[in-house]
Amino acid sequence: MKYESLWRRLTGIYDADEAKAIVRLVLDVRFGLSLTDIVCGKTELLSETDQIVLEGLMQRLEKGEPVQYVLGKAEFCGRTFHVEPGVLIPRPETAELVQWISQEDSSFGASVLDIGTGSGCIAITLALEIPEAKVTAWDISEKALAIAQQNAITLDADVVFEQRDILNLKDQNTSHTSDSWDIIVSNPPYICDQEKAAMERHVLEHEPHLALFVPDDDPLRFYRAIAHYAKKTLTPNGMLYFELNPLYAHETEVMVQDLGFTETEIKQDMFGKQRFLKTKRI
Question: Which of 40, 42, 91, 123 has its CA 20 to 30 A from that of 270?
Fold first, then answer.
């Protein structure tokens, strides 16, 4: 198969530059072909077996399936995480949040909770970046927890994973009365239903809606529940970190301040959007 014919098959979904980058990534990761190999036409010299495999991958990409799912892996903070449908694909913005935490809160022995862990990228990275920290990660999804657990094993990270639903802690067989954390972090579902129309097809049709969306009439649903839990369980001067929906950054800030949190700071991401919040329990 010619390289040009491959990337042109994706131009109905992506622009030309992104289509080229996706195909180059597939050829590199799955078949070990460098850019030089591609330019020299080695895509046309793949074995018959590899041609069949490549065609199968291309068909998945043509349906809009994200390349990370097709390859089964995503890069995050310099490490490779296994991903598949059922977990959110780690974003570079979330990596900025993890870097902020590890730079500002690297105290030894800190107890850290990641709520809504997905692939485990936040919890695992913090466990590796702050080796003395005691890291726990929650998710409502059994599948996500299984994937996160496998990522922790692969990356040799010490993380405790628990199936917990932050919206219904009272209805579960676990009690939070003895919970105590120095740091709570969450990248919760925050995209309102009304925002779907502006979303890219490969996200909307393939990534888990459970990890993405909240009702239009309650955009702070998860932030509010997490903040109430954090108010009860954070140690004095403990820190709460959020990845934000920029549309509701101010409302989230006001909400945590009304609950009594202090020293609240909102930070922009690499694209200049109000993406992260940190605040302290007094």
Answer: 123
Residue entry with tokens 């329990």? 281
Per-residue b/e over 158-188, b at no fewer than 16 CB within 10 Å? Answer: ebebeebebeebeeeeeeeeebebbbbbbbb
Give pLDDT tens digits for 115-165.
999 999 999 999 999 999 999 999 999 999 999 999 999 999 999 999 999
Residue 259 and residue 208 share a domain: yes
Domain of residue 35 covers 3-63
Q: Distance between CA 118 and CA 200 in Å, rounded?
A: 20
pTM, two decimals, is 0.90
| Residue 190: other Cβ atoms inside 10 A | 24
Return the CATH number at 146.
Answer: 3.40.50.150
| Residue 72 resides in a domain | no
Compute the distance between CA of residue 158 and CA of residue 89 in angstroms, rounded to an integer.
21
Cα separation, 41 vs 28, whole angstroms: 14
Distances in Å between the alpha carbon of 117 and those of 52, 153, 171, 207?
A: 35, 15, 20, 15
CB-based contact 220:242 (threshold 8 Å): no
**How confident is the model over 179-216, as pLDDT tens digits?**
999 999 999 987 776 776 666 666 656 667 666 677 77
- Together in a domain, 56 and 100: no
Task: Give the helix ranges, DSSP H, for the chain.
Answer: 3-8, 16-31, 35-39, 48-62, 67-71, 92-104, 121-129, 142-155, 201-204, 221-233, 249-258
CB 180 within 8 A of CB 111: yes
